[in-house]
Records
---
Amino acid sequence: MNFTCNRETIQKCIMSAERVTGKNSSLPILNSVLITTNKNSLIIRATNLEVGVEFQIPAEIKKEGSVAVSGSLFSNILSNIPDEEIITVSVIDNVCKIITKTKNITVKGLISDDFPTIPIITSNESFTIQSQLFIQGVKSVIMSSAISDVKPEISSVYIYQKEKSLFFVATDSFRLAEKKIKYEGDKISHGVIIPFKNIIEIVKIFEPLNENILIKITKTQISCVSKSVYITSRVIQGVYPDYEQILPKNNTTEVVMLKQDLINTLKLSTLFSDKFNKIQFIINPQQKKCSINTKNSDIGETEANLTVTMSGEPIEISLNGKHLFDCLNVVNEDSIVIQFNGSNKPAVIRGLGDQSFTYLTMPLTK
């Protein structure tokens, strides 16, 4: 194999592919990326058997072939020759030579025949979405996904269609986030549950791009395809919790405040919160008082009064301060609405005037 290509272009693809590699001591081939030629293109593949990725970039192909090389080593080599614009790579007997104007580097490769195949998804269940909309949907909810694999259904992001919207949902059973994006494209008959670790990689790879993504789903796999990238991932074969039944239909207390005011208050208050990140809201519309109190027996305590608009019944409720921070990071509006339905029911947070994002956080009772 022999080819010439732009160093920066191949470096970006190798770096992205290397994140997917398996870090597997029993199967060393999973630690590598596969480099293959195809007419006037270079194909770079990586997989950890959960996620597979394929990049296609332009190159001058002088001799076709393939080689598997350490993704981390190849990436580090390319990042440490920033003054080189063009590189030439030749492979003989699985020995890879990287040649530039001023450097000659030799890297031992592996037999490419041992590299696992990346499945090609064929399915009638598919839809197309702009990459930045897809990323917005995922990033709006992923902080609410459970990280542990004990319950795979909630260590994930759930995506489904309803009416003329695409829904992104995540929950760890202590909080829940739902993002709704208007969508009038192709219809799919069922939703898809993508593991947390896998969808994180999908987002990282597509985030720099601004392209349409064709998403195909089956009961076991999902693929995301753009002009230059192909990703496939395992999906969870289970039933996502019927979360809509816990979405409150009404509220007994409502507070409207500037998002930045709450952020500033939380920055101070959480310095004094306990190991459960507990902060206490005391809201009394009749007395026109809204305060956030925190107490840590080892450090001290604080009370902060906020300027808000409020209505409804008085309430005292303890919430997780970190959960509130996570939510505020994805709300785009300057003002937020927090709705309560009693001290033992979840609080609901939205951006003022924005019905596309809903965030629930459960009260702390300890």
---
Amino acid sequence: MRPIDLAVILAYLAGVTWFGARFKESQKSLRDYFLGGQTAPWWAIALSIVSAETSTLTIIGTPPLAYKGSFVFLQVVFGYLLARLVISTIFLPRYFEGQLFTAYALMERRFGPHVRKVTSGIFLVTRALAEGVRVFAISIVISIILHTGGLASIVVIILLTLFYTFEGGMTAVIWTDVIQMIMYVLGAGVSFYVLAGRIPGGFPHAMDVASAAGKLQVFDFHWSWTSPYTFWAGLIGGTFLTTASHGTDQLVVQRLLSAKNERQSRLALLTSWGVIFIQFTLFLTIGAMLWVLRDGKPITGSSDKLYPAFIWESLPVGIAGLAMAAIIAAAMANLSAALNSLASATVVDFYQPMTQSRRSPEHYLLASRLSTVVWGLVLAAIALVASQWGSVLESGLSIASVTLGILLGVFLLGVLTKRPGERAAIVGVIAGGLVMIFVKLGTKIPYTWWVLIGSSVTFGVGWLASLVVKPFAVTEKAKQS
């Protein structure tokens, strides 16, 4: 443990916690707590989306993909762009019809309260599991720094993030995201610079060596149902994955709803893609440069420790602390957003309807803060068992992919069709769930195809069910949609 590096990390943790907590006074209602009062500028929301999409999983999980393979993972990012165009065209206009706090309120407007609870419940389970993996990912980084066990690392990061999320709500989430994204991009930039200096011949030589070894290959056009990183899996699978994660997952939709209007929300969403593309390219390049520096030696132990270990062992004193603080920054950014989105779905989709919105705004604000704390404890518990789930990057993506297709299928059923009712939608969800359990446990189909499969089954069965299943009584909200 080097005092200067530790001082940098602790100063950052204290500073960002203090900064986030300063937004407490602006939290007067659920609109303030969950949508930031819809006052944040589009560029801040764009950077916040990037923070949600990046996370520690990307930072420590992407370099090993290039180290052990090539740049083929980048193909998924092209699907990310197409998905953003789909969301901007299909979902955003519906989200900005009236005041929505969660994505799942749209499902009640179209189908009824049962579908809202089902879709929100799926989100809660999926996001909690996926975020638990991300919390475990940051414990890897902290254990390298402090040589502590996973429990202590998990407790520290959750308590600090809980504090400012509890106090400042979505406003704190967005503005701390901006700071933290700048931090981890800066950390990656410093790592890139140091790596280039340590490789004889610098960056050009490193790229020549990596290129000769096939490390810079981006496109793989062969068709395969078992390879996760082909052009077709990236374009088609990436499109469906991101349409689901950014169009139906409250973690990102909450940010889109926080914009002042639909135009600014669309601008934030599309701008975020350019930043994501640059980031993925940077982290893959770092992985290829590490391969050159280490003469292609196989990774011993967990591949997720490759990049954090390089930072801590190879960067100059002080700079190493800055780079490690950057990785922790990504974790805190994502964790704070997850806590706020889980709390929003819990209170707005379940507790408020249960109490028939009869309590005061102050009561629901308190309930939101308490829900944030409860979810923090749940994520800590999940993180403690996540160490058995393999690569943190692919584990996080695969967990989300199991249920995101079901959510996307029922959302598309609601937005693109008029005939299916609430019962038909629920039948589609059940069918999609059963098929995804089989795909996950009984096939070798990679996660990049799961959202396409899940959404197609949910949508198709839901529409067919509408031909034979008698609908529930249509609600007034559904009539108005």
---
Amino acid sequence: MNEALQQRIEAVRQKYNDLLKAVAMDEVTKELGDTATQIAGLPGKIQEIRAAGYAYANYLEHKAETLDKQWIEVREQIQRAIREELEKSQQDVMQLDSLWDQLDDAIAKAEGREVASKPTGMAGLSGVFKAALEEKEEAKSAGGGMLGSLSKSVESAKKPTGLAGAAAAALSGGQAQEAKPSGGLGAALGSAMSQMASQADESKIEAFVGQIESTIERVSNALNAAKQRIHNLYGQVPSNVSQTYSQIRDIEGYLEQAKSATFDFLADEDLYMVVKAEWKKTGKGKDDPDGFLYITNRRLIMEQDEKKGGFMGFGGKKAEGLLWEAPAGSLEKVSSEKKGMLGGIDLIHIQFGSGGPFGDTTIEVKGGIDAKVFASKLQQVANGDIEKERGVERNQALVDAIAELPTTCPVCGATFNQDVVRGMTQLECAYCGSVVRIGS
């Protein structure tokens, strides 16, 4: 057999290897498994942020429930689609394995060897398809049902004789030369291939190889198209799962930042958002303080958190602390503006009314926060609309107790100047030392 034909046979053997791997649909299996795992983990992640004290984003629970229901339907559609696609390609696959046998026989005859009997049952791609199509239980887990059967069948299929046997050996980690199927193409591809060159009916062998090549191409194209159709069945579920996890990570970031706040949160105050920000106090760039802007149901709080001085990030002195705070109800007007090259600077203009720290101010929000979106969030706070997002009921007993606290000392009449903060159990008059219990 001439060298060109030998190389062609070797190339078609590799294509068969690739086809056998493709049939397992590993990409589909992985995406199914990853999505199923993420959806199953959502309730636990949401519970964690609730336990940590985050009271808002009540849509998270609804999204988790909806995604779970959608996933059950999508998973079933995918399992059905895989079965349909396998059934469509089954005839081509059976023809492909038959061609392997015929090619093996042609080579055996060319060598003057006896044509070996072929195994029945689970052999080559036909065996893989058969095992998958006989799968009855459409398991809920990603590793069960049709995909699980496909993957297991590819790994455990009996090695057929001939070229298919060499492909299966290569897939399982062996070398084609080491597979050595009795009387098969594996031996032909080894030392016997060079010995039979003068005996082989090359035109007949070439005809079989050509048919195998065209059949592999047809099955490969069908599988690629099938994978795309199956992927389309996922719809928006994976992106919605990813978005939900992104929202949870944002909230985890808020909670983590709040742990290092330099001020106390009020007793009935719930954190809504925290963003990196620069207070445009002077408009002179480096002179303007950087830090974090906290938004709660009660207040808007600007905290400085940066290094001042130093050189190229080295040295300098930590500057931190509360810069100003404003009652949520003092926000009268909020607007946004994009400035800088390509609109990379997101500015928020705030106008305060009664109770505000000043008439108006400007803040640059950082960290990828869109100014328009953030301005709408601030407006929700000002209007009290964030309460519609509450996912944890307020401690009404505490709210009522705070509302009933006197504003002046019942003994000396002096005005209390203390805010009621978390963990506080009493107010103490700074003038006469009288104590008023909270919640008693």
